[in-house]
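User: Can you help me understand a structure? I only have the sequence.
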Amino acid sequence: MSTRPRTTTRPPPSRPPSPGIEVGLLPLVAGIVGVLLVCGIIGGVLWATREGGQDPVSTHTNATQPGGAPAGAPDLRVRLDGETLVFTFDYPGLQEGDHFQIRTGGDPDKVTGTPVRVDGTEFRLGVAPGVQQCGTVQVVRGAQHSAWSQVQCETVRKS
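Assistant: Let's start by predicting it. Here is the structure, written out as tokens:
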């Protein structure tokens, strides 16, 4: 046996921490940024093509609306023809392809409901004697609508 003291090698001195980004962290950060970018693009496409979104407002007219939206409201008159009410409409700016639609109701404040398309300038409605019927009308030009006319009412006289 030897009497020499054992010598052990010292571990190498540790390096001080580097002030920059470590090589292993760079791919992680780049991956996160890439995923966020892809999610943003997909979200933008889904938002732009969503259902129920409002259509962009048209700033021009096309063949279905040659003069744009009809201005003003049509005139409405109602008269009796026996037990039939005859609603007659007039609109000075009527163009080819335009039509009227009418809503009716028993009370001037309750002229609501689904409008009925009328091709022509007259709408006939049979009503029982003593019953009041009111109506309002508008012009339809393509997808554009005029204002509603004043409500007009008439009551069929009892026989």
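Now, to help you interpret it: Residues 56-66 have pLDDT under 50 and may be disordered. Strands lie at 75-81, 84-90, 99-105, 116-118, 122-126, 132-141, 144-145, 152-155. Let me know which part you'd like to focus on.
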